[in-house]
User: What shape does this take?
Amino acid sequence: MTIHDPRTRHGDASDGAMDQVGGRLSRVDGPAKMTGAAKYAVEQQLDGLTYGVLVESTIASGKVRSIDISAAEAAPGVLKVLTPDTIMSLRTASDWFGTPPPDKPYCPLARDITFSGQHVAAIIAETFEQAVAAAAMVKVSYDETPAITDLSDGKAGDGIPIDAMTKEWGDAQGAFAAAPVRICGAYNTPREYQAPMEPHGLIARWEGDKLTVWEPSQWLDGMARTYAEWFGVPFENVRLVSPYIGGGFGSKALALGHGAVAAAAAKMLGRPVRVVMTRPQTFTGYGGRAATRQTVTIGADTNGIIQSIVHRGVNETSIDGMWVEPLGVVTSIMYATPNFSSKQNVVRVNSVVPGAMRAPGENPSAFGIESAIDELSYEVGIDPLEIRLRNYAEQDPEAKKAWSTRQLREAFAAGAERFGWARRTPEPRSMRDGNQLIGWGVAAGTYPVRRAYGEAVVRILADGSVEVESSSIDMGQGTYTILAQTAAETVGVPADDVVVKLGDSRFPRAGVAGGSRLAGVMTGAVYKAATSALDQLIGLAISDPRSPFHTLQANTLVVANGRIGSPRGDGPDLSIAELLASVGRDHIEATGDTMPANSTAEDRYKNYTTIATSVPHTEGDYSRHSWCAHFIEVRVDEDFGTVRVSRVVSALDSGRLYNPKLAESQWKGGIIMGIGQALLEEGIVDRRHGRIVNNNLGDYLVPTNADIPDIDVISVGIPDLHSSVLGGKGVGELAIVGVAPAIANAVFHATGKRIRDLPITLEKLI
Amino acid sequence: MRDFSYVRADTLDAARQASALPGAMLLAGGTTLVDLAKCGVAEPDSLVDITHLKGLDAIKVDGNGAMIGALAKMSHVADHADIKSRFPAVSEALWQAASAQLRNMATIGGNLMQRTRCPYFRDPANFPACNKRSPGSGCSAIGGVTRGHAVLGTSDACIATYPGDLATALVAFDAVVHLGERQIAVDDFFLMPGATPDREHAIEPGEMITAISIPASASARRSTYLKIRDRQSYEFAAASAAVGIDFEDDGRTIRDLRVALGGVATKPWRAHAVEAALKGKVLDEDSVRAASLLAVEGAVDHGANHYKIELAPRVVARAILKTGAMA
Assistant: This one.
């Protein structure tokens, strides 16, 4: 119960003054980052800091026969040379579902080599330069065995069926065979890498049996759990500090091998250790997006109405790890179909275990189905936008539940209008400007609303300012800013008077900043904590005998712009600071969380340190997703085959936007990443060595500003209270989904060539 | 730890003497050298810093041509008004090279000395075999990932692509490298890999690039640099062409033509055959496209780089047509 009118539930997706939820407040962390004042995790200056450098395998498969460390040990400044034989023993930690681990030791340095670039040894030295030099002196000899280098390797085989990925209804094969129009395409995506600006790294320091880790992290509590389990210390003994993160895109959610090495070295040495990956190591020290293969077959009638979809997918995983990139997740919900079948295998190859990268699953899945329906549109001679509307799914075809909200029709309409889609000529190669063939393509995208729990503390301080604390993080998406807006609006103070503290696992806990869930989770938690704090403040003002409001006999009071007064404006009018002074309080504090009532301590631990308790997006009566439609113009030089994106209009439904300015930036970031995926990005494997050869940002190309046109984004969302406390749906991952197929579809419209293998590089078009 | 000495040269002679010592390397902008040192490719025993030498950064342009000091920054040359008007291909090649930050640091002399982007050359720890790095050790690129490798001027010992843009324009316009008193044509300064790909330049220990001169010509004045690449900026050429044309007084008949290719060869590649085929001819699209095919005469691909053989003539043709259409 509250004793004031909640303000935050109202308003549409674009409402709000600057200081309120929905306002276009600029990033509050922006000036610190622009001026260099923002101190990132590994920039901490610690007394006695030492430096670790990793030595990596130069073969992709085999065994370490011996490691000669004599020269390295004797090198100047070297404090420790760690090998599988000399590193302290760690325990295996549970996975991110919290599955109890096997009772066996964990060694982050490998004896059995399963990929090129695996950590096999580490040097700890007084200086970074000394460690680099000594690392080059470590001589590893191997017994090499043949590697399976990638999905195309003849030794790769068909892989392992993942039964949990199977989805079937109706008679997909029969309906396909009977359909008058049938199309079938094979769609491939390569290994792609998150390539964050800030490479992975950490500083680990032990004080007795207490470990502090300064490390960029999308999930402090999850990583703290892993460190605690590796070293057999209580969870509470591990403190993660991650005030700013220079880009994660899924890659910084889990504690990784290099972290184990650094923390073990720090324990063994009794001194803090810093390990920062080199850029090449960021291609093998953890996984990017798995390479995928899909076949999509669609049976339709001559009006383009889908009768059947049969989908088969394969993604690569590592020799000893399991990563499933769910390839049927968009296939099964984007279009209405009475008959459906999707199955998936994973194939083991000699690579690092792939990992999460912006919209894992949805992204490659959409490349398949959104390319395939485009192919169907040409097959039946129906406009690519029209065929999407004809097959519009009025409910979730898979879950057979109503959508919570699905503004996809509105997205198609708004995007088409802004883009001028009606002026498109249908024939491929029918639009041209000199040597440039012009193509217009459309594709849809979606991302599920993943929900979890968070908690926050809100304090109203003696000076009237408000402090918010949470162990959640801001990797650039705007957590600092939207939580300030939430607290400001809820309490009734200017956002300038709110200080948000994030990125320290000693703060109230939060789950992973992944799956586009954090904003919805944390605005809810802060809203609850701030509401509770405001209740306390008003309660004090009304009931404390020392309060000037005590004699007013009011039922409630109004707090706005940092001042407290009666609803009618009669009676006293005090600043919050004056009120707190009058009642002799130096602060008010309230903790709020979004956990179910009666949650136990164990429930809470599980909720914040694993993803096992994430609420399914189809829980209850509704199916919850964000939606988008991308309209993209490309120019393809007919001599050179170069594809340049010249125009993007995207209309997106992320529900209510907590801060439209920041949401638009995230959408644009996703679209830019999608342009890179479509045209540039590919980890290229030397099959003789099983090694990624373009493991640097000079050779693994991500877009530059010159590659990106103006991007026009339109919000078509409406508040969705089935999805979050304040009505928002996921933002961060949505916009990349569907960009690559929209570009591939535009390239087909421009050239008449259907490219089903990403990236769409020039040699595929000349 | 690998120690090396650092010397700041006060005079040209001191720089030459210091750089003649075994293991010595000249340090100017450092954009290539520091990068290669980080890769473990460059392991100098001593660095001779020449950035404080006076008078080596001048850019002089007159009726005879341009004289560009070795320490002139790429960005200064690119933005020089007379270079832009009299040698537009040179300015455009520089603008399209590297990034703004690198162009502000890198010098013209250093630019000529930049090394290949062959990933096998740049990763000694994983690919010990590289004839360019360790003569006789073999070539890791042949049979490997070759999308960026050369199709012209290759040998059994090396297929690494010369990566630069500037030198492609220089070789088209008969520029000369000044090594103090000694002068050598840019085309002769860059060596074919042959059996000795470790030897990339006709420069001896103790010699130092002091300037580059480009003779004035009508074809240089009417010139362009066309660079085709996967990414719009900060990316090496998939194929590029420097082209200059001088027409007879009728404005249609080609009196002089200069064509050089980048991104496809082991050195900056002058396409004499294309020039010869079109000189004296009236410029028209069909004959230009036909003649441009001669640009890749003798080209040999290694699989993934086959597209360069298709692409390069198209880039040449477009550059010639674009230059021909210039006002």
